[in-house]
Amino acid sequence: MSAERWIGGAVLLLPGALRPRFREEWLGSLRDAPELGVARAAIVRGAYATALGAPRSPAAFGLTPGELGFRRLRWAAAWFATALVLLNGGWLIPGEALPGTFAGLVSIGLGGLAVVALVFGAIAASVGLRTLLPVPRPLVAWLLAIGIAVAGASVLAVVLALFALSFALMLGLVAGLGVAAVALAWPIARDPALRRTTPGIPARLGTRLSALLAALTLTAALVVAVLHLLVWNPMAKVPGLELGAIYAELEARGEMPAAGVGFALVWAASWLPLVLLFLAVAVVGPRGILRNLDERRVARTALTGLAFLGFGVFVAGFSLGMSLADAFMISGGDAALSGALLTAVATVAGIAACLRIIPHTTAPAEAPAA
User: Is 366 inside a domain boundary?
Assistant: First the structure.
C-alpha cells in the first residue's frame, strides 16, 4: 500500500475539524520528502503518532459538547448492538451441522468478540456521558459516567436475556416489513455536508445498480432460507427418508406440518415488500416516496435486511423444527449446513450494519485534499 493511502488512514483517526489541515501538511511532506532527505515511512509513522495523540475535545471535532456527547452515545449503541449480533451468531451458527470441536470454537470466538464489543460500548458510553454531565470535578464525573454506563448495559443485558425469545417470535415474523418501513420513513439529511460518511462501493455503483444488487441478494438469501426450512433441514434431520415420507410421518403423528410450512411461508412473504422496494428504486431511482433511498440508505438497508433475514430463519423454522423433534425424538436445532451459512452471513451483515448504520450527521464538510 502506498504512503498516501497510509496517510489517508491516519487522517481518518483525527477528529473532523483537524483533518483538512493535517491532510494537506502530511501529503505535502510526502511530496517534499526526497528533497528533504526524509524517509516517507518516517512521515507516515509521525502521522499516526500525531493522529493517535490528537486532542479529543469538542472543539477538535468542530462540535458542541452536547453534539459530541450524543455522537459517542450513538457509537455506544452501535457497539452494544454489535455485541448482540455476535452473541446471536455464536448461539445459532454452530447448530448440529458443524463438528463439535469446531462449533465450540465458533461459539467461544464469537462470544469473545462480543465481550470486546461490549467493552468498546461501555467505553464509548462512559466518554459520552462524561462529556454531557455538568459535574465540575473530573473524577466525580468519570465515576458517575462509568457507573451509569455499566448499570445501563447490565439492565439491557438482563432485559434481552429475559425477553429475547418472545421478542424474536413476535417481531421476527414481520421483520421484513419493519425494515422496509424504516428505510422509507426514517428522516434523511439532504445536505452532503451533514452526511459526511463515505458510502464506498455503492457510491461508485450508483443508486439504481446498488438497489438491483440488493434486491437480487435478498431474493437469493430468501430462496436459500425457504429451501433450508422446508427441504434441506428436514432431510438432514431425518436421514434415510424422502421428503414426502417425512411430511407424511409428521401428519400421521398429529404434528400438523401444514402449520409449520405455513408459518415459514408467511415469514418469507413478509420480506417480499423489501425486495419490491429495492426493485422500484432500481427502475425509477430515489424519487417521490422513494426519495430517502439513495445509495447509502440502500446499502445499509440491504445489510440490515440480510441480518434480520438470516437470524429470522430460527423464528420461521421454530414450529416445523419442534414438530420434527417431537415426531422423530430428535433435537430441534438446524442439521443442514445451509442454516449455519445463513446465520454466518447474517452475523457479518449485522456487524457491518451496526458499525456503519449511523452517519456523522453534525460535522461540517471536509475541505478537499490539496
Answer: no
